[in-house]
Amino acid sequence: HDRTMQDIVYKLVPGLQEAEMKKQREFYHKLGMEVPGDIKGETCSTKQHLDSHRNGETKADENLNKETSEEKQEEDNDYHRSDEQVSICLECNSSKLRGLKRKWIRCSAQATVLHLKKFIAKKLNLSSFNELDILCNEEILGKDHTLKFVVVTRWRFKKAPLLLHYRPKMDLL
Length: 173
Known about the structure:
Blueprint: H1 3-12, H2 16-31, H3 46-54, H4 62-76, E1 85-92, E2 104-108, H5 113-123, E3 132-136, E4 139-140, H6 147-154, E5 162-168
Organism: Cephalopterus ornatus (Amazonian umbrellabird)
Keywords: Nucleus
Protein name: PCGF3 protein
């Protein structure tokens, strides 16, 4: 998923985002499961909020502004917890590096390979994250690949967790 492209499509196609959210909620309710990303006790007025903005309505009510700023603040403190999540197992592929104490992590599908490199470098006290390669199925992953992209292209039809290996960077020339 390309987040920017998805945002553009949602803006170009009226009602698509609301329809997708509604279908997703119905699906999870049918299964009797909690909708991923929902915060317990949250009352969702997203549709009303989006409709009022789309129609050009603006309300000068102070309570609405206060509520909106509180929602924005809560949204800012989410730290991508409401994003789609990916479970990962990080294995060391070299005798030159030590393994992580906790090799199982769960993070946003929007996180990139660069984020993982920085995480591993920090945990292993490496001087630079550029000293690492991260591999999936013995293929070096590009630093800008999102974890969702890696799952869709390299981990197709395999069960979670996504197994990634890390090793010191190898210069092939």
